[in-house]
Specification:
Elements: H1 2-35, H2 41-58, H3 61-70, H4 79-99, H5 105-120, H6 125-161, E1 171-174, E2 181-184, H7 190-225, H8 230-246, H9 248-259, H10 265-284, H11 291-307, H12 313-318, H13 325-329, H14 364-391
Antiparallel strand pairs: 1-2
Helix pairs in contact: 1-2, 1-4, 1-7, 1-8, 1-9, 2-7, 2-8, 3-7, 4-5, 4-7, 4-14, 5-7, 5-14, 6-10, 6-11, 7-8, 7-10, 10-11
């Protein structure tokens, strides 16, 4: 009876974690697309649920195995320890929401499990070293890849992807035949349709990458304990993420859509592709990583690279340029959701472009605070889990 009660509690906490993951991740994935009116909030929630589930079901299984048996042997995941680990993950999400900083559920989950390993002297240091190494390296990769794109390719991408958003529906039904079939809306151009599909596809890709890394956080301890199978666990977290996406996620989408209006949609898409690709690749190799920190460093790198187009490499080394919102906006070329006409002219050569300086894209103190809290919350979960598992007799 006690085991059954613990199992129910474990499932409830897992659902709570998945619910919060869905509510927060949907804003990151679909905020830009919703802000550009490329998809509705209901459509975004449905696509988020499907994409996240597919990411967890395919690539995310390896991350579940890492968190459920490689960091600490699966034999150490009893029903009691599984509930405690999930509790710390859920508590970290709550704490982060209170202070207004998105928490890395992957880092927090790994920290809680590491606390269990330290307390039981069962921590696999080789696995932890591998994970910690990629936590340090992946944001650096995101910075430099985004920096290269911003410096050398961003203006061309802006011209290639510039799209005018027309009035009316994007699609309509052609009823002239026996069977109605979809067609472009009255004012919709093929360029607009392709651009809109690309924006939504990138959002789905971001949600897919979130599933590859974050699905494990809600179910890995239970799967490691053997109290929940892999497939039922992934189905459970998929449903929980969907509940969060359709409920609290609507507010998150609105917030992220408004917050991202200062960043051009193209910049948001570049950051999404770079960070999502890194997360997916590392998840393929069973490494849980922080989506938020990787995305943050991608933003900084893109802004730095865009700003350095005003100078040559030698000049940039001597006098680093200011990174600004206008540095990302560049030539003010619109993308989906903005008005204007695509410009086919070649962008100015590096060193000849005049990128105006305006409000900072990222304020150093605030950025440092966010990154510090991103690392502080997992540290708190690690220490708290260690103290609980080390000194409470029940464990």
């Amino acid at each position: 009876m006690a085991l059954s009660a613990l199992f129910v509690v474990g499932l409830a906490v897992a659902v709570f974690v998945g619910f919060n993951v869905g509510g927060s991740n949907i804003g990151v994935a679909f905020g830009p697309a919703a802000g550009a009116s490329a998809v509705s909030k209901t459509g975004a929630a449905a696509l988020m649920t499907i994409s996240f589930f597919l990411g967890g079901w395919t690539v995310g299984r390896g991350v579940v195995k890492t968190m459920g048996g490689r960091i600490v042997p699966s034999s150490y995941f009893t029903p009691e320890t599984s509930v405690v680990v999930l509790f710390f993950i859920g508590f970290a999400l709550f704490l982060a929401n209170v202070v207004g900083v998105p928490a890395s559920t992957s880092m927090t989950g790994v920290g809680s499990i590491a606390g269990l390993g330290l307390a039981s002297e069962a921590l696999d240091w080789a696995t932890m070293t591998e994970i910690l190494t990629w936590w340090l390296v992946s944001p650096v990769i995101a910075f430099w890849v985004s920096g290269v794109i911003g410096r050398y390719y961003y203006p061309r991408l802006a011209r290639l992807l510039a799209v005018n958003q027309s009035d009316g529906s994007l699609l309509a039904l052609d009823r002239t035949g026996t069977v109605p079939r979809p067609k472009l809306g009255t004012n919709t151009t093929r360029r607009e349709a392709v651009g809109t599909v690309a924006v939504v596809a990138v959002a789905c890709y971001t949600a897919f990458s979130a599933g590859t890394s974050n699905a494990a956080n809600a179910i890995a301890p239970l799967v490691g304990a053997g109290t929940l199978g892999m497939e039922p666990g992934l189905l459970l977290v998929g449903v929980a993420v969907g509940l969060g996406a359709f409920t609290i996620g609507r507010r998150t989408i609105a917030t992220m859509g408004d917050d991202l209006t200062e960043m051009p949609l193209l910049a948001a898409l570049v950051v999404a592709v770079v960070s999502s690709t890194l997360v997916t690749v590392l998840s393929w190799f069973d490494i849980p990583v922080s989506v938020v920190i990787i995305a943050t460093m991608s933003i900084v790198g893109l802004g730095w690279g865009r700003a350095t187009r005003t100078t040559t490499v030698a000049e940039a080394v001597e006098e680093p340029p200011d990174v600004s919102i206008d540095a990302l906006a560049g030539d003010d070329v619109p993308t989906v959701g903005e008005g204007g006409t695509p410009d086919a002219h070649e962008p100015p050569a590096i060193g000849e472009e005049d990128v105006p300086a305006a409000a900072d894209l990222f304020e150093p103190t605030t950025t440092a605070k966010v990154i510090a809290l991103q690392n502080l919350v997992p540290a708190i979960s690690t220490v708290a889990a260690y103290l609980v598992f080390r000194f409470l007799p029940v464990f």
